[in-house]
Amino acid sequence: MRRIVLTGYRGTGKTEIGKQLAKIYAVPFIDTDALIEQRTGRSIPDIFHEDGEERFRDIEREVTASLPAADVIIGTGGGIVTDPRNMENLRRGSTVVLLTADIDTIGRRINHSSRPPLTGLPLREEIAVMMDRRRQNYYASSDLCFDTSDTTAEIAAKKIAGLIQAGTATPAARTDALAFFRSGRIPAPALRRLEELLNNPPSDPQTRILGVAGYPCAHSRGPTLFNGLFAEYGLNNFYTLFEDPELSQIMQVARAIDAKGLSVTIPFKQDVIGYLDEVDEHAAQQIGAVNTVVFACGSAIGYNTDWLGIRKPLVGMKGAKVVLLGAGGVASAAAYALTDLNMDVTILNRTPERAKELAKRFGCRWAAWDTFDTIRPDLVVNTTPLGMEPDTRSPLNESQLYPDLTVYDLVYTPPITPLIEMARAKGCTTITGTGLFLEQAKEQFYLWFGIDVPDETMRKYLP
């Protein structure tokens, strides 16, 4: 059987429910904390007191790497999910179940625990602070979520086993989702895989689906990249296209089949916020656009990873004069990244009112599109879709380029756009959108699975 791993905060029932699951499946139960105490000959409070938390985490990492690969139920320590190396080991070949409970229930269950406090706060406040601090990590660890607040370990184990056997999507939801995917431009091999996963019954109810949400999005390199990474890390997931002109339809299907996550692209990066339960600080309060959705425990949470990918190759140009072309969702992320680097930003857009609005949000300048020649920037960043296949136009013409200009085109299909090709011919320094795609996808993978993928591994699966 596929290994079952239980994650969650202390007091959510990992040990007792794990033992009950072990009885159901007739396999051993291993508690990582108990295994640490067995191997070291010391209690965890003693390890914390004598060696500190950092040494405990080292031991925990070693124990996690040595766990059996199959036919076992594993209960984990509350903080194990914060280490990407642990997540890489725990997620491989496993179904990971996140156990949750309300703060009062957890407080009652651990009130007399001998574990050392992790903060100087009273117990209830510490639980609230630590659960909030680790929440993103817990969500990244989860294939399934189960609230243990009002149930016994025996009943919880039976219900979890039922979810693992049947999946979380209803037969009607799978039927509707399959009709949705058949109406799109999904390649035949991918559609056959979806038909297997969404059949009644499905070929593997534990497989979670992810995809790119956009219109159009058939050009996306996401399926090749992420499905390659799923195979690399032994993850039971499938990434596909959620292509539809109606964002409401996409979100309805994604929620109904309990999708794991979405990459959001043109033209939905701003509108998708209205379909989410919450958004993180960067996406909501600053950028106003979402390119990553994480579905976990009944919630849809939005993030923006574009700005990190845009920022990384420009760190050496802090304070430069820059023209930002475009005023959409990607432009918002770019403006955030550029102002974070203290650049002198002027935003140009075919619709000046949108440029003005975006400039006001970020404290930048704005101007009419045809004023580019009067600015003579050090850097130009293209966030418009011009140059994206099949539209092969360039947002600038050859006469507007000069050798001491750096041109950063965020379009990544094709890898060498008409703008980049012209800029290279004029002797400009160029940055292609492939780097952005890699960096933002790397951050997405971390948000979805808690695994930090090395750049060389990412590049291995870039089409």
TrEMBL record:
What does UniProt list as catalytic? K269 (proton acceptor)
Copy the pathway line from the protein's UniProt record: Metabolic intermediate biosynthesis; chorismate biosynthesis; chorismate from D-erythrose 4-phosphate and phosphoenolpyruvate: step 4/7
At which positions is NADP(+) bound?
G326, A327, G328, G329, V330, N349, R350, T351, P352, E353, R354, L410, G433
The EC class name is oxidoreductase
Q: Which GO terms describe its molecular function?
A: NADP binding; shikimate 3-dehydrogenase (NADP+) activity
Which reaction is recorded as catalysed by this protein?
Answer: shikimate + NADP(+) = 3-dehydroshikimate + NADPH + H(+)
Binding partners and assembly: Homodimer.
Protein name per UniProt: Shikimate dehydrogenase (NADP(+))
Q: Which species is this record about?
A: Methanoregula formicica (strain DSM 22288 / NBRC 105244 / SMSP)
